[in-house]
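User: I'm writing a tutorial on reading structure tokens. Could you give me a worked example: one chain, its sequence, then its tokens, then a sentence or two explaining what the tokens reveal?
Assistant: Sure. Here is the example chain.
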Amino acid sequence: MPVDDLFLRACRGERTERVPVWFMRQAGRSLPEYRALREKHSILDMCRTPELAAEVTLQPVRRLGVDAAILFSDIVVPLEAAGIELDISPGIGPVIEKPIRSGDDVGRIGDLAPDGIEHVNQAVRILVDELEVPLIGFGGAPFTLASYLIEGGPSKNHILTKTMMLSEPSLWAALMERLADIVLVHLRGQITAGASAIQLFDSWAGALEPADYERFVLPAVARILDGLADTGVPTILFGVGTATLLELMASAGPSVMGIDWHVPLESARVRLGTMPVQGNLDPAALMAPPEVLDPKVHAVLDAGRGRGHIFNLGHGVLPETDPDALQRVVDTVHAWQPDE
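And here are its predicted structure tokens:
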């Protein structure tokens, strides 16, 4: 992928002739062509089959004309490759058969050999040969992965996770280190296979107060991002409900900060200085009529100022989203020009 690609230049903070746009969870869920495949295959089967993962990744690029593709996979895929028995339950999410609750349980998490995720890397290679836009690889950050592992599945309050973190700091540190190493191998494999950028999802980091994030989570995130620095590939760090954590998250060393819809983009730009930002339209705005949606899209663009800004949602595409609304956003973003 040429280094002067629109999306990659925005990742470097450069002014671009137009703002690049892609959507978190653009690969799947709201698209009828994806749902047709889901009638025949489970999510994990699609993740494990390079040709299917590549096809789902390509679907929104073909349909919408977005400026980047994001690999279809799931953040728990490397955990399965490291020996954790799990499933992705429709309507629920990842479910862990034997949750991690003790030192012996942490010991059950194996190392991740590069060939343990060969199916992921093969999907990347297929896509690099077919795409004309950059491919974003991704992984889950250690806190978010730990939350699934400890709780046994999705959680609203992360009580078991926080209890281990606060009550057993040595055990927590060992778990964070193990997960950081697994994620690092996973992401480096995608980069070696040809991914042009990486997004690290710390989806549930917003459940933490700043002091606990800084002590218990930030070192593991920095370990991953430091471990990718020599690749020269841009990295994007994103979490939900992280308004109080933005500066701390930025200190971990990503190239770009993903901003959720709770934080005004203009405020994020002031707080983060010259760091490029990604975001941050409320996903629910896509349900609104055009006369409501269009001004909201323009407000995000105006706040982004056309430099070092990648247009995206403030979280993933909701399953109920009409693909025509996504298309409208892409067309609006592509037509917008910043005031000089």
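What the tokens reveal: Strands lie at 69-70, 86-89, 93-96, 135-140, 197-201, 235-238, 256-258, 277-281, 309-313. The CA atoms of residues 75 and 248 lie 22 Å apart.
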